[in-house]
Each structure stands twice: as structure tokens, then as C-alpha cells.
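for the writeup, i need someone to sanity check this before i put it in the appendix. the sequnce is what the collaborator sent (i think, or maybe the updated version? ugh). structure was predicted straight from it, no edits. if anything looks off just tell me and ill rerun, i have time this weekend
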Amino acid sequence: MNVSLSSLLHAQIRPEKILYEQGYGHVVGVDEAGRGPLAGPVVASAVILAPEWYHPEIQDSKKLTAKKRSELFAIIKDNAVAWNWALVEPDEIDRINILQASLRAMQMAVARLSVQPDYIIVDGPYSIQTTIPQTPIKKGDSRSPTIAAASIMAKVIRDSIMRKYHSLYPRYNFAGHKGYGTREHLKALAAYGSCPIHRKSFKKVTS
């Protein structure tokens, strides 16, 4: 019985292995950080790892401490065949919505790679706009080391951006919650209103 490549990808813990066996050389994993926050950009990263390279600590960035993410960021940066990142700012998020902004950031991250990928695996259920073969994988950051590596890169970069915004708008404590809708953040919004990096289309910002 013939099994489609898409079915194989969704059945495997490490979809890269199937793709390498199918003859694809440069498999790029793509993920984003910052879909849920009330402020700041959404950041995406694209990472190509060598087929023989593996690091046992690489996993979904949400399961790692900030210290461990920073350590792995440096390791991935030094060992990746290629990687890059992109962001979409809050005003663009408000204009096109957060889903489209996330997909656009991922598309731009892939386009900025110095090495042309043969296949793209995208975290989540949605495809990005590209002519390169691709498969979106739900919970891909917990199943694919390459997507997990991209999730780490995106998260570390976005957190760094939010720490810089903290120096501009210290009353919101972006360095602490990174723009997410914590109780502290909601209290600051109620007291001071929104600032230029808030996503005005998000209900909790305007309510």
C-alpha cells in the first residue's frame, strides 16, 4: 500500500528522518514565538540542521528554562547549516490579524536563509506561502528537533526584543512577562492605557 509523504510525516516522532530517507537534503524547520501576547512583535525562525547532527536537549522551547534556551541558542547558532529569523510588528498584526502575521513572519524567515531548503516542515496546522514543498505538523515543536530548534531561536530573539522595549516603557514590565496578558500587565493597561507596541486589535488591550 502506498503511503503519502504527508501521512508518513504525521506518523513519525522525527519527521526529518522520513524526509532524509526520501532524498531531501536540506530540511528546514520553522516556528514562531509571540502569537499570544498583547504587545510586541511575532517572531519566526527557520533552521536547517545537518542530517547527522542531533542534540538531546533540544525540545519545544516552552518546556525549557530561559537559561537553557540561551545555552541551546548558542549551540544551534554554531552548528546549524543555516538559520535566520524575521518579525512582524504590532501595527501589521493589527492590520492583517495574528495568524496571517505569524505565517508571514515564517515565510520571511525561510526566504532569508543563506541555503535553499529542499523541504519545509512548519509548526502548526497551516502552510506558508512558498513554492518549496512543505508539510505543516501540529505540535511539530514536540515531534521534530528541527522545528524545536526554530522555536528556541524565535523565543530567545523575541524575549531579547521585549527586554529592549522594557527600557522604553518600564511601567509595563515587558522584561518580566514579555507582553503576555498576566495580571500585572492587565493592571498596567488599566492604569496607563496602551503604548505604541500594544496590539490594539486584541480585546484585552482595548477592554
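The radius of gyration is 18 Å. The first strand starts at residue 27 and ends at 33.
thx in advance!!
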